[in-house]
Amino acid sequence: MKMLSAALLASAAVLGACAPEPITRVETTITTSAVDTEALGTATGLPADAVVGVTRTGSQYTVFYRGDAVTAEQVAAAPATICANTASTVFTADPVDTTAPQYAGGGVQRMTVTCS
């Protein structure tokens, strides 16, 4: 019985040493700013009345826009405009495929642009 207890204690010590560090809580701050529609239109290259909102995380921008208020050419040109406004170039641009059936009714579309 003593050998079993010693083995369990030794195993517990080894497992304890291998355990990952405890997860710590990371505090984040979210800042929101009211921006006029014309400024959003200029910053994105999309018509001002089409832009619903824009979010930014580091160098990644997500633009929400009304799909029925833009042309395919405007959507294609928007990533270059967005990145040019930050003196950078387009790294990736992922517009939502608005030809998919779930978007047939128009509504709000999303485009994610990462600048480098």
Overall description:
33% of the residues lie in helices and 24% in strands. With 116 residues, the protein is an alpha+beta fold. It has one domain (28-115). Strands 1-2-4-3 form a four-stranded antiparallel β-sheet. The longest helix is centred in the N-terminal third of the chain and has 17 residues, at 2-18.
| Mean model confidence by pLDDT | 78
Order of the strands making up the biggest sheet: 1-2-4-3
Structural class: alpha+beta
Q: What is the number of independent domains?
A: 1
Q: Tally of extended strands?
A: 4
Radius of gyration using CA atoms only: 25 Å
- In angstroms, what separates the terminal alpha carbons? 64 Å
Poorly predicted runs of 5 or more residues: none
The shape, in one word, is globular
Biggest sheet character? 4 strands, antiparallel
Strand content: 15-25%
Number of helices: 3
Helix content: 25-40%
| Strand and helix order | HHEEHEE
Give keywords.
33% helix, 116 residues, single chain, signal, Lipoprotein
Summarize the structure.
It comes from Paracoccus subflavus. The protein has helices at residues 2-18, 37-44, 72-84; strands spanning 51-57, 60-66, 90-95, 108-115.
Q: Topology, pairings included?
A:
Layout: H1 2-18, H2 37-44, E1 51-57, E2 60-66, H3 72-84, E3 90-95, E4 108-115
